[in-house]
Structure formats: C-alpha cells, structure tokens
Amino acid sequence: MSRYSIKMQASNKEEGHISGAEKIISEEELEQYCSRLLMRALKHGKGKPDFINLKIEAIIEEEILHIPALPVSTVETVSASEGRKVVLAYLRKLGLGQAEEILAIWEQSYAMRGAMLLDADTLQRLEPDRERGIRATYMDMETDDEARKSSCEGKNHFNEALVLATKVVSHPNIVAELCISDDPDYVTGYIASKEFGYVRITTLKEMGSPQGGRVFLFRGEEGELEDCIRYLQQQKVLVHMDRNMETGSCSEKTAVQMDEK
Ligand code: PML
Ligand code: MG
User: Which of 91, 166, 183, 232 has the fewest CB atoms below 10 angstroms from its CB?
Assistant: First the structure.
C-alpha cells in the first residue's frame, strides 16, 4: 500500500499559529483527508487563517514503526493542585527523585512551540533550539473504527495526545512525558510512561488558563541523545488503537463540573 504523510498548519497575522494537525494515510484516502484537514484549519475557533500550509510526503511502508497504544487509566481530580500531586506521586514511583524540581521546570515549556526535552537526573535542558523545542511528529493512529479515524476534522485532544505519548515514551531513553493542554477550556492533562501507561488526570490546571506545555524526560548517555531526537522528530509511527479503548470525554465532563461551582 502507498502511504502518505499530510501535515496541516494554519496561521494568521493577528493570532500567529491557529491550528496544526497531521495524518498518515493511504493514497486512496489522500483527497478525503486533505479536505478534512483544510476544513479543520478554516473552521478553527481561534480565527480565520490567512495562510494554510498542507505538506504531503510519500512514506516508504518499511520505514513505519507499528506500536500498540499505551494502556489508558484515569485519575479523577477536582483541582490543579490535586492534579499536580498525582503527577508528583507518579514521578516518584518512576524513581525520579527531583519530582518537585521537574514540575517547576515544566512551566518553562509553556512559552515554547514544541516540547522541552529534559534530562531526568541532571535536569539539564537538551533541546538544540530552546524556543522551538522538540516537535514530535510523523505519527498517526491505525484503527478500524471509522468514527474515531474521521475525527480529524475537529481536534480530539485525547486521541491525538495518546498517539503522541505512545510514540514518545516508546523510545528506550524516554522515561515519561508530562502534558497540560494550552487550550483554555481543556483542563485534563496526563503523565505517560512505559511503566504506568497513559494516566489521564482530569484537572491539571485552572479552567480558563492558556498555559500549557509538554516535557519529555530523557534518561541516558550523551551519545544516545541524537538518536532520541531523530526518533521523536522523524521516525514514522502508526499507533494501533483498540476498538474498545475510551474515546476521551472526561475533560468536557470536568469542564461542566467546574462551571457549576
Ligand atoms: C493538547 O492540547 O494538545 C494536549 C491534549 C491533552 C489531552 C489529555 C487527555 O484528554 O487525555
Ligand atoms: Mg493547543
């Protein structure tokens, strides 16, 4: 089967970045998904784009790494501080002694376009470009669930994050990923690791806050860093989703709960 990677990026002069998404699909699906991603760019709540970039690249089938999605679990929390305590507990369970410091450094990722790559032990920042950060890319889900697959017209935070987290923590040198969305009305975040899977934390920031970012925690030798960055930014990955896997509606539920307060 011939497959293609499609990447969409939309921006305008007032807002800067408006929307971005990517898919890995077959040649037969190319036209349909180009149009879906175009609609996603045009209908974004942040505003009308004045620039849309659709990048299409052929992919060699043998270059694709196929991996199963991380197992998912959910921890219900009612406040950002409770959510952060859950993250701290998981970091400690992963053997990361400097959990408090990692949480503090995570805040520096809020201003970045990509993710921060942090040495889990020395707490040294490892991104070659600190403003841009690391862009985990060239990944998509593989599923026979049509509804899930076609959800790319609008953003599905959970599906997209599960795909990204599965790719990222599958690298031998990544111990964990921490993520809070920068979308003001999306308060569910997660900590992902090979050991504990994808752990959703239903409240990890205050409702209305535009602050969010990602940290990839690296553990390894200096000589292993280059391969890790190459994997994160260039390796093509298809994440196989289980049909019975949850589809990610807990943040909306939390949003309602928060509004009622
Ligand atoms: C983002 O906005 O890209 C981050 C989404 C985090 C999703 C968390 C979840 O619902 O599991
Ligand atoms: Mg966002």
Answer: 183
